[in-house]
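User: Can you model how pyridoxal-5'-phosphate sits in this protein?
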Amino acid sequence: MEVGPGDEVIIPDVTWIASAAPITYVGATPVFADIDENTWCLSAKSFEACITEKTRAVIPVDLYGNMPDMDALDEIARRHGISIVEDAAEAIGSEYKGRKAGSFGDASAFSFHGSKTLTTGEGGMLVTDNDKLFERARFLRDHGRKPGDKMFFNHEVAYKYKMSSMQAALGLAQLERIEELLAQKRRIFKWYEEELNGIEGITLNYGVRDTNPVYWMVTIVLDPKLRLPKEYLMEKMSERNIDCRPFFHPLSSIPAYRDTEQAREARERNQVNYRIAPYGLNLPSALNMTEEKIRVVGGTLREITVR
Ligand SMILES: *Cc1c(COP(=O)(O)O)cnc(C)c1O
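Assistant: Here's the modeled complex, given as structure tokens:
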């Protein structure tokens, strides 16, 4: 998209750093907007408030399989002439108004990292309906060769961002059983929902109106009134041999970005993510989870939180 130095790209403050790092790689400035209280994804209102004349693109993230309010984001982006790149790394199978995650905006990215719902070990996939972007990406990923080039003739210094044939074979085999993988993720969430139902102060990621999510990781947010920060919870769970992960820390709070001017502004502005992120926990969600294991996790959480 020819984004570079002097340009700004808006992303949600709470996401994995992989959403932000590419902005930094091309010399542009990441701007950290607040998240929405219900979806935990980019807030449309905060997105609009962060727009300046330098804004070139926005990267909404389908956090943990939740979907942002794409219609609202799309309307704002169009009105301001801003490109959208959807980060669908955590949301393969999720739907917003009947449309699949990864089909929004000018381009979208999936991740096939070992932890993801569909994996090739490492790797990922860029998708777009824009022919120009598609051709440009094919050119950039192979050291600036034109697709089909047989003369090993490089027009630009570019990159080597290709997947190996062995990974692709693994990915194709996974794709053949994608419905089975998605069904198991849905089952895991349902089991957790039944198990945690009625524990006061625990909110699970729940599908908001117009969405049909497939959760990559089942996630809970605790009422701050319980005064159980995620670090404490992780420690207590770990004592029982249950491995959890922390809700992503706001990018504006971590050493990689915290000393930037944009991070300072984000810490002032992003009330919602600073309220939620300290109390969020990803629960064990791997595809080999069983109803019995989930009962153990739920029982342990109940013991820790009900006092
Ligand atoms: C996993 C992930 C990525 C991509 O990670 P890779 O390790 O580069 O495949 C990007 N964004 C989000 C939100 C992710 O969870």
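A couple of observations from the model: Residues 178-305 form a domain with the Aspartate Aminotransferase, domain 1 fold (CATH 3.90.1150.10). Residues 15-16, 18-19, 61, 87, 89-90, 111, 113, 124 surround pyridoxal-5'-phosphate (CB under 6 Å).
User: Helpful, thanks.
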